[in-house]
Amino acid sequence: MSAIKGSSFRSWKDISDRHYQNIADNYTLYLLPDYIIIEPIVHGAKEFLIIDRTHEDIQIQNTLPNIDGATRKSIDGIIGIINLLAGRYLIVITSKKHIGDINGQAIYKVHTTDIIPFVRNMSHLNEYQLKYNAKYLSMIELVLRTEAFYFSYTYDITHTFQRLQTLSPDFHSIPFLERADERFVWNRYLLSQFTNNRIISQFVLPIIHGFVALSTLNINGHSFSYGVISRRSTYRAGTRLFIRGIDNDGRVANFVETEQILQLDDIVCSYVQTRGSVPCYWVQLPDLRYKPKIALLSSKNHMEAFRQHFEEQEYYYGKQFLISLTNQHGAEGRLNAKYRELYETSENSYLKFEDFDFHKECAGMRYDRLTILLARLIADQDDYKYFALTQDGTSQIQQTGVFRTNCVDCLDRTNVVQTLLAKRILEQQLQHYNIIKYNETIDSYKQLSHTFKNIWADNADTISLQYAGTGALKTDYTRTGQRSTMGLFQDGYNSLMRYVLNNLFDGFRQDGIDIFLGNYQISSNEGRTRESCPISKEISKKFLALPVTMIISFSMCIINLLIPASTFHEQVTHTLFWSLATISAIALTIFWRHELVDVPKLYSKISQYKHRANNKKQIKNKFPIIVHIHGGGWVRDSRANERRGDPTMMDDLCRALVYIRDHINEHCPNADPNQIFLSSHSSDAHLISLLILDKSHLHRHEFSFINNTWCYSYK
User: Which residues cross the membrane (predicted)?
Assistant: First the structure.
């Protein structure tokens, strides 16, 4: 990888000793009416973390205050502090699970947590704030319940083994939080409240989100440890359909760094792969359709974001081999074509590109055809190598590049291919270090094969659960090496659950992630009135009645078919009535589908701005705006009823005007409301590009009105 260029290696034993931080692995928390006190359980001199619950001060003292009458609780660490409507809350780890060791350093999984309010009561909140505070709290609890968060008291889990070996000796004396790879520290915002370096170095830990599994094996008389670590990026983090593509900083959705680690008696080997969304501007927002429409944002500078993304990737990983597994026809095909176009236009010598239509090539459960893809990758995989270091640091192999794999979700197809690449490297390592013979494979050893396949299948399920809400598809192939009928049924169930979760629940989950990561920061003024809190908006009950009516009508239709009526004429009449009611309910549900989707209600610094659109009738006479369509000769004053041009464009334009009326001061404070021009419109993707005059300069604002959700950009 690029970070290792010009670096010298040291023994891992030397580095492991330096990893040790002055952080206790157990604490006692004392809960008093005026204070929260945290005492580290360590030998010798110790310091105490004191939180003043009234003034919200945080400081360290050398002596333990009077703790008579305190409620005591054993905790395993501090995740951080979150600000909600009621004030600050302390989030602590109440139990942990030991996953295994890397380099003799223990790795733990967060098992249970507790959220402790600084305030002693909620008397300062009104009834609306109490309701909204409880809702915000439930969002944080949902994030913490999502598998899986990991940490270590003595090992920097945010960095790959290779990066740790190539950094200066002084680096290892820096507190964990200060030296951690910020891309993967999920409690970075929560720990920003601790500004005292002594607190940072003694009481707080960086937490990663992703997957960790470590297992000890014995093959041919050789004992070794095998494991996988996946680190999910905090940048552009979110849920499957609401967070896609790239942002203006070159960060992509669902970016995950996956490291395979093999620990022998005197050698540690590491192999890194990455995954991430197709690195261009695109959206696929839920609208109750099984496969929502994919739309490329045509007015965005795709090449600039693409360039920024791979500049960062090259810095961390060196050469990049891009594997695209999307379909090469339809909407996925257009997305893949854009990806290839950006690659070819970039003329970046550090990049290689291979597209492989996974579904077409492996149709009919012909997963053996993946060998076609693997054959195209072998030469570059051998060229990139893997990282290996002996205990005394005298013999090394360096990994100089990574495979970056993606499909549309970067989950199911991606998992299968990453597993194949990891398997080939592991076989090479075991053969090279004489654990297995050169004519043998992982599958030659039942225990080894079982462990490898299940670790990678568990990795697939966990990453999928975090992004899509369910386990991964196609994991029967990862676990067993072949597709099965039961696997197809399981995929069907997971697909159905994804549909339900992504359409009806993911807006709430996305809001929770944005609060947890600090993309949205709650104001104490929220909830002063019923409408002043963004989460006050809920789906109208009249819309919820539509799917209920549809289910009841369909059930009655089936009942009438199965249970005969007294006369044939009566049975036909009842069946036709309930059939018509079912069809009507389905039609109305489709028509109002945008109102039924649970969309995020909070702003996000990472995702594009998202807004529920108001009805176009709300324009009325409140905000007179003149819009000119270039080339079409169409002029519209919002106070008039002139309706010429494409009806789809007119509908999108009306909705855009509503948004401008409500938010023009926020995004364009010096705008002239009488100088707004429509420069382009795509009826297929519902994309509107507006030019707004602000201080004698025209600024471009793009609105992608897809599924009642706004994507806002400003240039």
Answer: 543-563, 575-592
Comparing CA positions, the residue from 239, 140, 148 lying closest to residue 501 is 239
322-355: per-residue pLDDT in tens? 999 999 999 999 999 999 999 999 999 999 999 9
User: Please, what sign has the CA dihedral across residues 415, 418, 420, 426?
Assistant: negative
Residue that the structure tokens 């945010």 belong to = 158
Tokens (6 digits) for 469: 């809400």
**What confidence tens digit (pLDDT) does each residue in 483-520 have?**
888 888 898 989 999 988 998 899 999 999 999 999 99
pLDDT band at residue 649 under the 50/70/90 scheme: low
Checking phi first, is residue 44 left (phi over 0); if not, alpha (psi -120 to 50) or beta? left
Instruction: Average the pLDDT over each of 589-598, 660-669, 680-689 and give the range with the smallest value.
Output: 680-689
Report the C-alpha gap between 136 and 154 in whole angstroms: 33
Q: What angle do CA 260, 264, 269 make, to 5 degrees?
A: 35
pLDDT (average), residues 89-99: 97
Q: How many residues does the chain have?
A: 715
Contact, 39 vs 27, CB < 8 A? Answer: yes
DSSP secondary structure of 1-42: -GGGTT-----HHHHHHHH--S--S-EEEEE-SSEEEEEE--
Contacts by residues 646-653 (CB-CB < 8 Å, ≥ 24 positions apart): 646/681, 646/683, 648/683, 648/686, 649/681, 649/683, 649/688, 651/616, 652/681, 652/683, 652/686, 652/688, 652/703, 652/705, 653/627, 653/678, 653/681, 653/688
If 0-12 CB within 10 Å is exposed, 13-18 middle and 19+ buried, where does residue 557 land? buried
Contact 213, 455 (CB under 8 A): yes
Written as six digits, the tokens of 114 are 């507790």
Domain chopping of the chain, boundaries: 2-25+76-504, 540-596, 616-714
CB 614 within 8 A of CB 663: no
Contact 97, 111 (CB under 8 A): yes
In sequence order, the 6+-apart residues with CB closer than 8 A to the CB of 542 are none
Helix (H) or strand (E) holding 105: strand 105-117
Say if CB 302 and CB 281 are below 8 A apart: yes
- Residue (of 710, 432, 708, 452) closest to 595 by Cα position: 708
Distance CA 706, CA 564 (A): 46
